[in-house]
């Protein structure tokens, strides 16, 4: 059977009351197609314009290969001038992508082209908007954000497939111990259930974003993304209002992330092998008990 994926709700516009009642408070994703209709970025941020304002700044690039246990998480596979990279993703398929790029440090005038959706909720981290770029065929591995923000993810210039899961399914997804990402040995879009039986019956959401669409991803949601066209996205981050969620965020950053980095540095491949075996054991145990942790 595999994953059980439902479509994400899609609205053109939404009031603050409806957004909080239907999506923010119950922590359910939604696509708001009209959120960016008054953003200058919607029409202004063409590939040529972004090349013009960022220029030949050298940027780190990532591919679809499994993480090397001897290297820090998010270690780049290559580097390239930004304008050359934009030409590449527009001209042919490539796995190469730019991850969490603070484009506004290079071109602060771009901040004038976006509007934080404060009419829907508060808590936005205005100093942390980030962009992501990918060629067609590039994939963002399954993970959730360690600092547990709510995300408003707006896509530009093409199509992007997104698959989402609530955090309660983390062990069934073969979550790597001490980390916020999953075993990278299965294809999220077409998983091998015989090899990874705990994935069978896991419930999630699937959506295909187009130019100008904004996906609201609630705090803690696992997400996997595939660029169907050479294109790019902007993520705006906002804190959850609850003190418990803020505490969990600080714990993840200070303890979980720190411990994982130290152990990886000390034990490298042995630590990676141990974690993967433990992820499989936990997933099979969770499948057997039918409980979610």
Can you describe this structure in just a few lines?
The protein has 293 residues and is of the alpha+beta class.
Task: Describe, in plain words, how this protein is organized in 3D.
This protein is an alpha+beta fold. It has six helices and 14 strands. The chain is globular. The protein has a seven-stranded mixed β-sheet, with no helix packed on it.
Which characteristics define this entry?
293 residues; Jelly Rolls; alpha+beta; 5-stranded mixed β-sheet; 7-stranded mixed β-sheet
Helix and strand pattern: EEHEHHEEHEHEEEEEEEEH
User: What is the typical, i.e. mean, pLDDT?
Assistant: 93
Strand content: 15-25%
Q: First CA to last CA: what distance?
A: 22 Å
Low-pLDDT segments: none
Q: Based on the coordinates given, report the CATH architecture.
A: Sandwich
Report the structural category: alpha+beta
Label the overall shape.
globular
Order of the strands making up the biggest sheet: 2-3-12-9-14-7-6
**Level-1 CATH class name:** Mainly Beta
The helical percent reads: 25-40%
The total beta strand count reads: 14
Total helical elements:
6
Q: Would you identify the CATH H-level superfamily?
A: Cupin
Q: What's the story with the biggest beta sheet?
A: 7 strands, mixed
The domain tally reads 1
| CATH topology type | Jelly Rolls
Strands, helices and their partners?
Layout: E1 4-7, E2 9-11, H1 16-24, E3 30-32, H2 41-44, H3 47-54, E4 58-61, E5 78-81, H4 82-91, E6 97-101, H5 103-106, E7 130-134, E8 139-143, E9 150-156, E10 160-165, E11 203-209, E12 214-217, E13 222-227, E14 231-238, H6 243-289
Parallel strand pairs: 1-11, 2-3
Antiparallel strand pairs: 3-12, 4-5, 6-7, 7-14, 8-13, 9-12, 9-14, 10-11, 10-13
Helix pairs in contact: 3-4
